[in-house]
Amino acid sequence: MENDKMVRQANQIAQYFSVYPQARAEEGVHGHIRKFWEPRIRTQLIEYVAAGGNGLHELVHTAVDSLRDEPSSGGESGDPAAQQEIGRRAT
Question: How far apart are the two ends of the chain, measured CA to CA in Å?
């Protein structure tokens, strides 16, 4: 995804949640990105913030800090080994 599009989408999420109290807004942005963004885009966002995160809403910066601190910021669905393990459990 192009960075401009990613920034615009992340900022739209942050703008939506910005009307809530700070803790709820931070949780909302973090949860939305973790739940609905595919792992490679989350990784791209984390890398973008690490490079300065120019143009991102402060709530996005906070969400990315939380995502980066998670054991698997890319999520299990993006991990081929995890997918194989999930497949073995299903059979």
Answer: 35
